[in-house]
């Protein structure tokens, strides 16, 4: 276990530890709570990129880290989406959030199943998946902030980005399912 605890893994664990901190600020009736939750979310998003980069750069990639990283990502995203749906409580917010959470569950299950078949490489992260993640993080950040910036509605921009993320989510899911189907039927 000591070999699996390194700086990248600690960053991943930090991302998980930030979830209750984000929740506290989300529900705190403080005029700057939206700024605090946005900053916490973006710190978590940066650790998502940084932990993978450092693991490769420092050559300390571990099976535990490879397992924990996507789990931390999915927990953070699903948790914040649930908070946003609860706060907005509309079909316009619920629909893309449900698509994104449903895709995350589907692809996680697909990756586990493909790993059992020895075909995990067939469902590795794709470029579309990276675009989806970028759109998703931007959308969530804007929705958490929700105040206008220079006259531009961050809530509206965030919602538009959520729909873009949901479309990319479906596109990437179809790509993964196609790759898995091709691997299975070969």
Helix percent reads: over 70%
Segments where pLDDT lies below 50 for 5+ residues? none
Reported CATH architecture:
Up-down Bundle
What overall geometry do the principal axes of the alpha carbons give?
A: globular
CATH class categorisation: Mainly Alpha
Number of strands: 2
Record the strand order, biggest sheet: 1-2
**Domains counted in the coordinates: how many?**
1
Structural class: mainly alpha
* CATH topology descriptor: Four Helix Bundle (Hemerythrin (Met), subunit A)
**CATH homology superfamily:** CDP-alcohol phosphotransferase transmembrane (TM) domain
**Mind describing the biggest β-sheet?**
2 strands, antiparallel
Tally of DSSP helical segments: 6
The residue-averaged pLDDT reads: 89
SSE run: HHHHHEEH
Strand content: under 5%
Measure the end-to-end span. Answer: 38 Å
Word description of this protein:
By secondary structure, the protein is mostly helical. The chain has a single domain, classed as Four Helix Bundle (Hemerythrin (Met), subunit A) (Up-down Bundle). Helix content is 80%, strand content 2%. It is built from 6 helices and 2 strands. Strands 1-2 form a two-stranded antiparallel sheet. Helix 5 runs antiparallel to helix 6. The longest helix has 32 residues, at 154-185. It is globular. The termini are far apart. The mean pLDDT is 89.
Question: What is the topological layout?
Answer:
Elements: H1 7-27, H2 33-57, H3 63-88, H4 91-116, H5 127-145, E1 148-149, E2 152-153, H6 154-185
Antiparallel strand pairs: 1-2
Helix pairs in contact: 1-2, 1-3, 2-3, 2-5, 3-4, 3-5, 4-6, 5-6
């Amino acid at each position: 276990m000591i070999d699996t605890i390194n700086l990248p893994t600690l960053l991943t664990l930090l991302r998980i530890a930030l979830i209750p901190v984000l929740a506290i600020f989300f529900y705190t009736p403080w005029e700057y709570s939206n700024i605090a939750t946005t900053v916490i979310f973006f710190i978590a998003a940066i650790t998502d990129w940084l932990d993978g980069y450092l693991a490769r750069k420092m050559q300390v990639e571990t099976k535990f880290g490879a397992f924990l990283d996507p789990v931390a990502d999915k927990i953070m995203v699903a948790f914040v989406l649930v908070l946003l749906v609860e706060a907005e409580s509309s079909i316009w917010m619920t629909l893309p959030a449900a698509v994104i959470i449903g895709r995350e569950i589907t692809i996680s299950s697909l990756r586990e199943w493909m790993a059992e078949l020895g075909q995990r490489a067939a469902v590795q992260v794709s470029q579309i998946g990276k675009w989806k993640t970028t759109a998703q993080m931007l959308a969530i950040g804007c929705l958490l902030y929700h105040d206008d910036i220079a006259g531009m509605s961050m809530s509206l921009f965030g919602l538009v980005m959520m729909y873009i993320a949901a479309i990319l989510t479906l596109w990437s899911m179809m790509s993964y399912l196609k790759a898995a189907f091709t691997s299975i039927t070969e």
